[in-house]
Amino acid sequence: MGTQGRGILTTLAAAIAVVFGLLTIASGGNALFGGDAARQAVGAYVHFVLWFNFVAGFFYVVAGLGLWFRRRWAAALALAVAVATLVVFAAFGLHVAQGGAYETRTMGAMILRSVVWIAIAWIARRQNKG
Predict the structure, then answer these.
(1) Euclidean distance between the first and final Cα of the chain, in Å?
(2) What number of other Cβ atoms are within 10 A of residue 17's Cβ?
(3) pLDDT tens digits along 76-102
(4) What is the mean pLDDT of the chain?
């Protein structure tokens, strides 16, 4: 892939990271701080997953801005977000395997988050090689 193609891909990854982060902060913040009605709407949420995703949303935005401005540290941050997401996903899997309550949509959301951040980390790494 040429330099211009990599630039477009990096720009797209940056935009996705920022938008994904803002949406994650909004939805997680609502579930955590929106009161009983908001928490009931979420259903059988897994407390540590919800908190992780909320906090990670801020890192999504920072990583996205770093990618947007072509900062070398953004690749390391994107990789850290991907790895942390996989670790929390594994812990969530253990929670489920032990019979813990959860929402099926949490499984889908963690798969989506993992795939997105693995892809963003890969794109960011390729940017740094170029």
Answers:
(1) 10
(2) 29
(3) 999 999 999 999 999 999 999 999 999
(4) 93
d(CA 85, CA 120): 13
Q: What is the pTM of this model?
A: 0.91
Amino acid at 36: D
Quick one: angle between helices 73-97 and 104-129, nearest 10? 160
Q: Return the number of other C-beta atoms located less than 10 Å from residue 106's C-beta.
A: 21
The helix or strand, by DSSP H or E, that contains position 63, with its residue range, turns out to be helix 47-68
The span from the CA of 90 to the CA of 60, in Å, is 20
With beta carbons less than 8 A apart as the criterion, state whether 57 and 24 touch.
Answer: yes
CA–CA gap between residue 90 and residue 10 (Å, rounded): 28
Which tokens sit at 107?
């499984």
